[in-house]
Amino acid sequence: MQCGAIMDPNIPVYEVTDVNTDVVHVGSFGNLWRERLFNCDLSLSEDTTHLPGDKDVAQDLGCTEEIASELKLLCSVDSLKSNDEEDDPESIPEDCSLLTLGIRKNVLERRKEVIIIDRPGRQETFLHEVEFHAVGKMPENPADLVEEGELVLTLNIMYPVIFRKHKEYKPFQTVLVLGSQKLTDLRDAICCVSDLQIGGEFSSNPDLAPENICKDLFKSAFFYFEGIFYNDMRYPECRDISRTTIDWAESRDRGYKKFEAAKMEDYTFNDLKIKIGFPYLYCHQGDCEHVVTITDIRLIHREDCLDRTLYPLPIKRHWFWTRKCFVCKMYIARWVTNNDSLAPDDPCLFCDVCFKMLHYDADGNKLGEFLAYPYVDPGTFN
Ligand SMILES: [Zn+2]
Ligand SMILES: [Zn+2]
């Protein structure tokens, strides 16, 4: 992209090459596209664009109609197909130097081992399902159809900073949101284990482990984009948790520009000013912080999922390793114990059944000494 002096400020220009753009207003960027494109480009109904005839091609390329017709034949999609219709797409020639075929071959070979090792197949199916489950989906209710010219933003939500593994570089969720959606729609779509924690020690009465998960108890959260903290203030118990940071920044001249606070529920993505590729922040449960990056902004296409109720739409989710019960080694752990006289490890993980069988008698009386905490496995989201 050429950056001339007269360029519209709402066309993203890369501030640091290959890293992030300058600040753009999302909605205005969308308007620029909608002003320049034709209705047929924006249309979400069946592909109405017809292929140009030989005459048009000849005129565009400045060649004879004969050459144009030959070119069209050579460049047609049909010419990409293998001549031999009977060819088995799963058999890849040994001497093939195409990298893509090499990758495909590896995948096919791994799949053959699926019978012995269940994991690669399950992971592959899972990733594939997440990515494609909504491609081209139409809404059941026509009122839920995504509007023509709607913007689609791709967001990477990284692992929480408190995670030791993957925290810097691996997005644990990639989602598509619509420009007209509220920030709170994204907030509600982010699943993080911190929201599912149950606080407290329950060894004396495990059945009392409250149904109330942290998400229901502590509802405050914010997004941070370009100097503004967008706080979730939808419920009476919500607090402006950005206040401490803003006060800290203002308490002395710390070299930050003035931060502002706003209500998350009052803003859509179209209202935002952002840099594409820049690391922003999502913070919830007090200190569970995730880096959030907007990696792409584009117009909706007829082959996208057109059911707006399915947005924010997850298209990638990292596969979580589940931690199994120490006893049965089969079920996902639900309890973690400390100082446990009956356990070989400290901490030790148990499923609900094994935990209760080992630690309580038939009347539910506690056996031995231990501390017990409800455990929520990140793999719950797989
Ligand atoms: Zn979190
Ligand atoms: Zn078990």
Question: Describe it for me?
Answer:
The chain is of the alpha+beta class and 382 residues long. 24% of the residues lie in helices and 20% in strands. It is built from 11 helices and 15 strands. It has helices at residues 26-36, 39-42, 54-61, 65-74, 99-112, 119-132, 183-189, 193-196, 214-217, 243-251, 352-359, and strands at residues 14-16, 20-21, 23-25, 151-160, 171-178, 221-225, 228-231, 260-263, 273-275, 279-284, 288-299, 313-317, 335-338, 348-350, 371-374. The strands form 4 sheets. The protein has an 8-stranded mixed β-sheet. It has a 3-stranded antiparallel β-sheet with strand order 14-13-15. A two-stranded antiparallel sheet has the order 1-2. The protein is globular and about 90 Å long. Bound molecules: zinc ion (2 copies). The site of one zinc ion has 6 residues, from strand 11.
Give a quick summary of the entry.
It contains 11 helices and 15 strands. The chain has helices at 26-36, 39-42, 54-61, 65-74, 99-112, 119-132, 183-189, 193-196, 214-217, 243-251, 352-359; strands spanning 14-16, 20-21, 23-25, 151-160, 171-178, 221-225, 228-231, 260-263, 273-275, 279-284, 288-299, 313-317, 335-338, 348-350, 371-374.
What attributes does this structure have?
snRNA-activating_su3, core promoter sequence-specific DNA binding, single chain, 382 residues, 3-stranded antiparallel β-sheet, disordered N terminus, transcription, bent DNA binding, alpha+beta, binds zinc ion
